[in-house]
Amino acid sequence: MTRAHLWLGVAGFAVAVACSDPNAIPKASLTNEVDTLTLWALDGGPLTKPTAYSLNARSGVRTWDVGTNFEFAFTVNPAGQPVLLPLEVLGLASSGSLKPGLKPSTLTFDGMKRAPLNGYVTTDTLPADSGARFFIRTGVNSCASYGVPLYGKLEILYVDTVADTLSLRVVANQNCAYRDLDLGIPKD
Asked: Higher model confidence: residue 139 or residue 158?
């Protein structure tokens, strides 16, 4: 056997082992797209309208319909300020170590290209001002078999304090552990 054949055999074996790794994250296959939606205030909003956002569902949801399968809810606090409430603030986060959260960003929406790993607010309310931008992270329940979260980004487009609604645009990367927030199939 020549040296070239030996190296080809070793390389082929390495590729076969890597491709059969049961702990490997699957290749990204779900497309990142921009969604625009409206949320109603948790306190006082109509029961038939969404009051929270689920990155896993890639949509607004009614909290009483989905249990704890959302990352944050919207409400207007007693002082009349619109706020976002991470799941832990509502006392609904699982006992796992990674909680769903939001991370404020000063980047433009288009400039928010890659979600950070850490620094997400999980235990406090966040002001929901028009123009505010946040990175979103789920808990690990969305990708429980891999023990990793999903990531996304959002921008608050408009807050209507009379109707108690919040309009936003979101990019939800539904590929487990991929933090790329550009449109299309994520690269990493």
From this structure: 158
